[in-house]
Amino acid sequence: MKRNWEYKNIEECLEKVTVVSKLQTKDFLPKGKFPIVSQEVDYISGYWNNDSDVVRLLHPVVVFGDHSRVVKYIDFDFVVGADGVKILSPKDFLNPKFLYYFVKSADIPSLGYSRHYKLLREKDVPVPPLEEQSRIVAELDLLTGIIDKRNAQLKELDNLAQAIFYDMFGDPIENPKRWDVKNLGDLCVKLTDGTHNSPINTLSGDYPYITAKNIRKNGIDLSDLTYVTKEIHQEIYSRCNPEYGDVLYIKDGITTGIAQVNVLDFEFSLLSSVALLKLDKAVANPYFITGFLNSDSVYKAARSNMGGAAITRLTLTKLKSFRVAVPPLALQQSFAEKIQSIEKQKETIRASIADTQKLLDYTMDKYFG
Known about the structure:
Layout: E1 6-9, E2 14-15, E3 22-23, E4 34-37, E5 46-48, E6 54-55, E7 61-65, E8 71-74, E9 78-81, E10 85-90, H1 96-105, H2 117-120, E11 124-127, H3 130-169, E12 181-183, E13 188-193, E14 207-210, E15 215-216, E16 219-220, E17 226-228, H4 230-237, E18 247-250, E19 259-261, E20 269-270, E21 274-279, H5 286-294, H6 296-304, H7 316-320, E22 323-325, H8 329-368
Parallel strand pairs: 3-9, 4-9, 14-20
Antiparallel strand pairs: 1-11, 2-10, 4-5, 6-9, 7-8, 7-10, 12-22, 13-21, 14-17, 15-16, 18-19, 18-21
Helix pairs in contact: 3-8
């Protein structure tokens, strides 16, 4: 125990928060009076106009994604989006930002789509004097600010990539250039998904196990990998065999609609939340198809087609039926060259983020570990 610090169970540190209603994803508005905060990765998930649904804050709170483990610091009135949002409102002896960093640093292993708050509520929070909390927050804010700036640069590059797509091809649904339209399935020599039986996966093992959490808008994230045995991998890989240059696409859960070109040059196993698209390279370039899937109009259309109860998803049948306006291959390849140039810039920025993240992790472990 650090000098002058006491420790309290996290539930002893929290005030009760009354939530009037939780909105379903399908009801989110693109614009409105009040921001919607959900357990999705995006800081703001949508908007709402009904005053009676708003959570009014007396001080900042921490939002914890019960299913996703996403952690957000919220300092404005908001509406709760969908199931799985836990609002952590600290008592007076705890700085809200200090609580935020504690929850961010907490070791909460993935339980899949199960609820994770049951693991968080077992944690004890260090409670130094408020002045010391403020000093620690300032130190962590400085490092976080550097990471935020680098992430903003990544977002700008992603926006540039999308602008290039629309400039070269137009809106992919409206198809203003009147290119031939084909089903996505017809552009693939194989379109499948990963294993439907969640295998035993551990922090070390023979082959990486990649799920939706590893497919991000700005690339493939290997920071939270688990692994499977050789035997399990061979069984999964015999049906679903991702290779360099294939397209990976999230089809299940709250991050459905994100696509990435597979730039990993090693074998890994996939969960069913991710679809594998092996393209017919004679007619479709993976960077073009990824740009198509990540375009605003296709992303929104895909999410509006999701079905299911506990976990919403796109079926493979629906995915195969996506209508794609197919430009000449030479034009697709020209687009790919531009995107690969952008990706090289992103690699440099990601390396800077990784270095700063290591320092942030070390600092948080010093105070919370």
